[in-house]
Design goal:
Shape: extended
Distance between the termini: 59 Å
Strand order of the largest sheet: 2-3-1-4
CATH class: Alpha Beta
Order of helices and strands: HEHEEHHEH
CATH architecture: 3-Layer(aba) Sandwich
Number of helices: 5
CATH superfamily: P-loop containing nucleotide triphosphate hydrolases
Structural class: alpha/beta
Length: 122
């Protein structure tokens, strides 16, 4: 009987661990490439045509999404003017990139100039 109780407690602990999974996702890229639109369509079930009304993100927008199997996504949508991007990658690097599970860098395929990616190479 004692063994059964221990097993039950361990199962409950495992379930709680599963419920509290948290995945940190960073959305970065040049201003105006559609980071917020992509986030809204993928994580908030918004229709793509409803995202045209969005203005540029001025700060970092954090969204918590309860995803499949009780996985909590912590999605950070970065404003990305060049000076802010440099700051994120240097002085604030540890703050944003520690414990990050995914970095999704979005670029405009039609753009002739994608210098932002060079910042990540450094």
């Amino acid at each position: 009987m004692e063994e059964e109780i221990k097993n039950e407690i361990n199962e409950i602990k495992e379930e709680k661990k599963e419920e509290n999974k948290k995945i940190k996702v960073l959305l970065m890229g040049k201003k105006g490439v559609g980071k917020t639109s992509i986030k809204s369509v993928i994580f908030e079930n918004m229709r793509p045509q409803d995202t045209f009304k969005f203005s540029s993100t001025e700060e970092i927008e954090e969204t918590h999404v309860n995803y499949v199997n009780n996985i909590l996504l912590d999605v950070l949508d970065f404003n990305s003017n060049e000076s802010d991007l440099k700051e994120y990658l240097t002085t604030k690097k540890e703050l944003f990139f520690s414990n990050a599970d995914f970095l999704i860098f979005i670029s405009d395929a039609q753009s002739q100039k994608n210098d932002e990616i060079k910042l990540f190479e450094e």
